[in-house]
Amino acid sequence: MRKNSIKNTRINAEVMKELANLIRGGIKDPRIAPMTCVTDVEVAPDLKTCKVYVSVLGDETVRSETLAGLRNAEGFMRHHLATTLNLRNTPALTFIADTSTEYGMAMSAKIDEVMAPIHERDDAKEDNE
């Protein structure tokens, strides 16, 4: 099975859906932040490992506590995946913090900061006309 095959894409989507539902309502660990989102899942072609990219709304301490809670609940999540998905192997889960949202927001703020004088100049021209 190739990495970008249709079968692998379908498995990634199913694992992502099950993990998102499980994190949202199945795990009772208080360390896991309520605004935790599974952004992407990459299951290896041999179904042995799975990288789970998780986005957490909050600062660095909230993110690290959430990742610790998720790592602690890995066995429970693997058992849930084994019972709900019909896979030959249940992959070992590796949780990775996805900071792309924060990076995008920071870049957007920088662009707005650079563009503010240009917008002010354009508004002043329109007022003069």
Q: What is the topological layout?
A:
Layout: H1 6-25, E1 36-43, E2 49-56, H2 60-72, H3 74-84, E3 92-97, H4 100-128
Parallel strand pairs: 2-3
Antiparallel strand pairs: 1-2
Summarize the structure.
It contains 4 helices and 3 strands. The protein has 129 residues and is an alpha+beta fold.
Write the CATH fold name of the largest domain.
Answer: GMP Synthetase, Chain A, domain 3
Shape: elongated
- How would you state the average pLDDT, rounded? 86
Low-pLDDT runs of 5+ residues are: none
Helix content: 55-70%
User: With helices defined by DSSP (H or I, 4 residues minimum), what is the helix count?
Assistant: 4
- N→C terminal distance: 65 Å
CATH architecture group name of the largest domain: 2-Layer Sandwich
**Radius of gyration, Cα only, in angstroms?**
21 Å
Assembly category:
single chain
What's the count of strands? 3
Number of domains: 2
Q: Widest sheet: strand order? A: 1-2-3
CATH superfamily of the largest domain: K homology (KH) domain
**Given this structure, which CATH class of the largest domain is correct?**
Alpha Beta
Largest sheet: 3 strands, mixed
String of helices and strands: HEEHHEH
SS-based class: alpha+beta
- Report the portion of residues in β strands: 15-25%
